[in-house]
Amino acid sequence: MKKGPPIEELTRHLAECPESFLAEPLQPNGTGTVHVAAVVSDLISMMGGEPLTSRQVKLFSYRSKKNLATDRKRLRMVLVGCWLLYNSSLRELTEPQDALRFLEEELPELASLLPSEQVVIDPERREEFSRLLLRTLDILPEGEGEKEAENRFEALSTIKRDAVVRAAQEAEKRARKLREELARKERERRAASVYSHE
Length: 198
What we know:
By secondary structure, this protein is mainly alpha-helical. The protein contains ten helices and two strands.
C-alpha cells in the first residue's frame, strides 16, 4: 500500500469545502447551478487523464426523472468527493481511473444513507469519508498500519452500521414470526385438547 497524508490533513480539507462544491447539481429542467460532469472532467484532466467520454458524462448527470431525489444525493456526494480529490497530496498519489472508480462506484450507497453536508460538517463523517477514499485508492494514512486503518474505518462506516441495523431488524422480524407461529400452534393444541375432552 502507498503511504498518504495524515488523516487530519484530509478531514481539515473537507471542513474547508467551499459553497460551490455544496451547490445544487444542474437538473435536466435547468434548475441548479453546478454541472457535475464538468467538475469531474476537470479533476480527471488535472490528474493527467482524458476528459470524460459521453458515457461517463451520463454517469455524472441526472439519470432519470423518476429518481431525481436519489440522483441529487449521489451527485452532491460526487461534488464533495471531487473536492477531497483536489487535495494536492492526494492528487499526486491518485491515478485518474481510481478517482473515477471512487466517484462512480463507492459514493452512491453512502449518498443514499448520508447527506453530503454531513461529510463536511460532522467530524466523524469527515473522517469516514477520507478513510473511504484512502481505502479505495489503496493508500494508508501517514502514521497508521493496515490493521489500524481498517479497524478505524470499520468503526466509522455508515454503510456497515446500516447493514448491522438492517440485519438486526430482519432477525427481530424472523423471531417475531416464529413467536407468533408458536403461539398459534399452542392455541390450536389447547383448542384440540379441549375438544378431545368434550
